[in-house]
Amino acid sequence: MSFWKIYFLESDMGNYKQDKIAREWKKHWDKLEDEKDHRLSPPQIEKHLSEDRLRFGDNPSEEGLLREVAQIPEDMHLQEMAQLVLNDRMAQSAVDEDPYRGNYPGPGEMEAPEDFCRIGTMGNGVPLGFSASTAIENIGIFGRSGAGKTCLVKVIVALLVLIGFRIIIFARKRREYDDLAALPPLQDKSTILPYRQVKYALTEPPPGVPRREWDNDWIDSFGHNYGRYYAQRLLQEVFKKPRRPETLRQAVKALKSYGQGYSPVVAKYRESIQYSIASFLDSVGDITDYKSSNMLSRMFEKPGLTVIEMEGLSQEPYSSLSTYPARWLYMKRQYQKGSACQPPVLFVWEDATLGMDRSKDRNNPQGTSPLAELSFMGRRYRQECLFVGHHLRSVSPKILSNVHNIFILGLPGENPREISQLLGTDKDQTDLARVLGPGELLALSPSIWPEPVYGTFDRLNLPSRLSDQERQKRIDKFLSKVDARKASGVQTSEGEEKRGGEKGKTKRQGKEISSEQRKLLLVAATNPERSLTGLYSSSDLSRRKGAKTVKKLEKNGLATRHRFSTGGRGGRVTLLEVTDHGWERLKKMGVDRPDPMTAGGWEHQLGARLIQQEGRKRKFKVDFEVDLGPVQMDVKWRSKQGQIQFFNIGISRVPRESKNALKAVQLPAVKEGKFTLVCRDTKFRKKVSKKLKKLDPDGNRTGDIELKIIADFLNSN
């Protein structure tokens, strides 16, 4: 037991002086014992001297000091000196254990250019960053969720805006960059736009660009964003017509009459285009229903920051809307010279993981995705891209080969080979890339230093986010400078957000339906003769998913099912009718209802359509509603040799259809050809056959009547 404890126990606790002395002794012995705890004992010194990582053998004087302390451990002055030497050695060892220690520039080896943008510090204390001039050669940031990718983007964006860049950020989350826009140096240079408030004139060429060149470019780009589901060549033909459409909605109307009577392949192309455009318009609303707009000219005229929030958009419309401004600027600068390439522009795809996928290259006819094409096409005109992704394993090689500045913020699940090939690292360096913590990164910027390095990046001291009033104030200020004119006769897309009231709350017109319902509804509208199984297949839906989607369409009053008996194997076929309410929904998507062929209902129209398709397949001329006096024929075929065949379509009234059929075969025009009564199904045909026998017992006229059912034409088509 220590002295102070013995004294304290034996002292008179009531004596104040003795208590005070005891407390003083306690402090003294606490200090001595604390110093004793921190002294280097001889075994500890021998252990440190034997550690190779501390390398005491390189400095005999330091080794001699520690050995002297081992002999006289109670000398506090020697102990203090030994502690300083040991701490210095351990700190140097920590640096030497960095697998990137051989990659760092030595003193005076790295000369920072005048446009150097510092974003952090290397592992050896040297500033870390990139050259603003090489930012034109693209930037790639890759890391797991929560690694700090958005924080690093904000640092880069703030630096580039302050040195004269125009930054366009396509954000996938709302209010993600409100705090950056509130940064005092950027307050007067920043605008945040929800995508519903942009005003694009897709078909209007940039200043100085020939109309034909622009049509080819934007149609090609739009088609590539939809990959295999789009046939842009047919749409290009539509825009070559003298009466050129002004908007995508008008293009859909022009497509309605284009290709009528052509091969089924052309019909499939037309269906593909209609689906692509309808899907796009249904997602983005009426923001592209303008025949002229100077929004992009205003956006690119001077340095600053514009954030376009695209929350909730699926990949295809997101990619189409985000690549359009980049293509517009590229074409504009391609046809202009001199100061037209000012200011330099950086496009930021805040989450480009899906858009950078190498499958996008395979799915495009030219083997290059829209983002991959943008990664190398804009350098000459001072356009750059900043791609942000969650991993490397599926990123297009064409994009990676065109990214000059690369920052890795931790990829724990990544294939080591992907990291090694991208950065040129060895095994230990690659392993570090998989265990980086928040704020740490690996950087490769060859224009500054040719080797990959480890470091930490700075974080901005950002203020609170913009208030709703401040956001709207900036939006109104920007839109007040925009001159946009809507095309005549366009319809407002469903889901358009309209501002109302003092707070500008949004209201949605109509009930939202899912993308599966929209797609199935469109396919059913353009292919009424297709069975439910065929509709599921064309809509990329499983049988179970398709059945649920059909039930939802019926519940919403958008479609209804019709069952027809076939008389063959399987017994019946089910078709889907788009209701009037469904056609109203499709019209808002840019799809018009076809003109009726006959005066009957949907099943009557279906029969007329099937007879028309069969006639055109046989190279016959097809006419509808042919008046022969006592009887009006629904459809007429006429061959090139002059052969004629008439059709009536019977749906509901057996006596009426039977009597009209008997009247028809007595007409001179019909006697020269053939007459066919197309019945709804086998049940209706049996009733008609029974009625004809009753009306014509001898069978003199009944023998000239051919009875068929709608399913016969379904099978032939």
Automatic annotation (TrEMBL):
<keyword id="KW-0472">Membrane</keyword>
<feature type="transmembrane region" description="Helical">
    <location>
        <begin position="151"/>
        <end position="171"/>
    </location>
</feature>
<keyword id="KW-1133">Transmembrane helix</keyword>
<feature type="compositionally biased region" description="Basic and acidic residues">
    <location>
        <begin position="495"/>
        <end position="515"/>
    </location>
</feature>
<protein>
    <recommendedName>
        <fullName>Helicase HerA central domain-containing protein</fullName>
    </recommendedName>
</protein>
<dbReference type="InterPro" id="IPR036390">
    <property type="entry name" value="WH_DNA-bd_sf"/>
</dbReference>
<dbReference type="InterPro" id="IPR036388">
    <property type="entry name" value="WH-like_DNA-bd_sf"/>
</dbReference>
<dbReference type="InterPro" id="IPR002789">
    <property type="entry name" value="HerA_central"/>
</dbReference>
<dbReference type="InterPro" id="IPR027417">
    <property type="entry name" value="P-loop_NTPase"/>
</dbReference>
<feature type="region of interest" description="Disordered">
    <location>
        <begin position="486"/>
        <end position="515"/>
    </location>
</feature>
<dbReference type="Pfam" id="PF01935">
    <property type="entry name" value="DUF87"/>
</dbReference>
<feature type="domain" description="Helicase HerA central">
    <location>
        <begin position="118"/>
        <end position="181"/>
    </location>
</feature>
<keyword id="KW-0812">Transmembrane</keyword>
